[in-house]
Amino acid sequence: MQLTDAQLVTKILRGDPTGFQELVSRYQKPVFGICYRMMRQREEAEDLSQEVFIKAYRYLGQYNHEHKFSSWILKIATNTCIDAIRKKRVDTLPLDEEIKTNQEDVSAERAFLQEEAHREIEAAIGSLPPDYRIVVLLYHHQGQSYQQIADQLEIPMSMVKNRLFRARKMLKESLKKLKEETLWTAEQVQKS
Amino acid sequence: MDCRTSSEIMIKQMDGPLAEADMQGWQQHLSACTKCRKEAAEWQQLSVMLARLPDLDPSPGFERRVMAAIDPMRYAVRQPQHAMNLGMLFIWIGIVGGASLLVVEAAARMQQWMMTWFQGTALYRLLAFVYEFVVIRGIFYFLMPQKGLWDWLTRWETVDSWWVTMGTLNLVMVLVLIKVILDRILAGGRGEVR
Fold first, then answer.
1. DSSP state, A103?
2. The domain containing residue A192 runs over which residues?
3. pLDDT tens for residues A110-131?
4. Which of A36, A64, A90 delimits the end of a domain?
5. Interior CA angle at B151 toward B148 and B153, to 5°?
6. Which of B14, B58, B65 sits opposite A32 (nearest CB)?
7. Which of A132, B60, B183, B188 has the highest count of CB atoms within 10 angstroms of its CB?
8. Do A39 and A98 belong to one domain?
C-alpha cells in the first residue's frame, strides 16, 4: 500500500531517508513547473528545484502535519523563486525552449494547434509581472484556493483576488495581441 | 444586464460554475450583445488554455541528483557502534574499579594488622610502589597520550553518548578515590598525606 505524504515524512524523521525519494518523485513536476515558469530558464529552474527539495529535507522537522505537504513544498518553491527573482531581477524573459507536450494520441494538425496554443499561453504567462505570474500558476495550474495562496505568499486574500483579476485581464489582452500579430504575419506571408 | 456586469460575470465564471440566476441573465445578455459574446469567447479560450497547461518534467536523473545532495544521516539515530563499545568498556572499568575500591577500603580498615605484620617489609613497599607508579601514573603518563585513546575520549561522538560521559565520570571518580586511599595507606594510617 502506498504511504501518504505524512507517513513518508514520519518515516524520514525516524531516520530512513529513502522515503524522501518518493516525495521527490511525487512533487518534482509541480515544483519544477513553478520554478521553470517563474525563472524562464531550464538550467536555473533545475538548480532552484533542487534547492527547494534540499530546503524541504533540511526543515522537514518543522513541517506541520495539519497542512498538506503539497502546500508546504509549493510554498518553499514559491519563496525560493521570488527570492531568486529579487536577486536577479528576472522579469519577463521568453522561455528558453519550447515546451513539448504529449502528442501521441492526436493528429498532426491538432498537435500543431495545441502546441501553438501552449506556446501562446506560456508566452502570455511569461509576460506577466512575477507577483501576478505566481498567483496564476498556483491558482490555475496547481489548483490552490485563494486562502492557500494567501497563506503561501503571506498576503491578504483580497490582494490575491485582486492580483488574479488583473493577471487574467492582462493574459486575455496578451493572447488577443498575440492572435492579431499572428494574423498580421500570416497576411504578410500570403501577400509576399 | 449591462456589458459591465456581463464582464464581471465572465471573470467570475473562471472560479467555477455560476449561480442559476447569474447564468440566466447573462445568457440573455450574450444572445443580444455581439461585443460581449466575442469577449466571452476570449475568456472561455483563456480558461481552457490555463486548464490545459502541461506538466513540466525536469531532466532525467533529477531525483538521483537531489538524493545525492541531501545528508542521509541528518535524521539518523546518533549512536555510533564504537561509542557504544567504548561506553560499555568504561562502565566495566567503573564496575571493576568500584569493586577494587571496596577491596582497597577493606585493606585500609585492616591497617593496624597490616602495620604490625606487613608494614616495613620489602614486599609492602614494592607493592605500594608498583600500584602508584605503574597503575596510576601509567594511566596518566603512558596510556592517555597513546594514539586512539585520547582521540576516543575527546571526540564529540564519544562525549555525545551519555554512556561514555557517565563511564568517563565513573572512571575519574574511581581513580581519584583510589589515589586518596592509596595515600592513606602509604601515610601509615597517621592521617598524613604524602
1. -
2. 93-192
3. 666 667 777 888 888 988 999 9
4. A90
5. 110
6. B58
7. A132
8. no
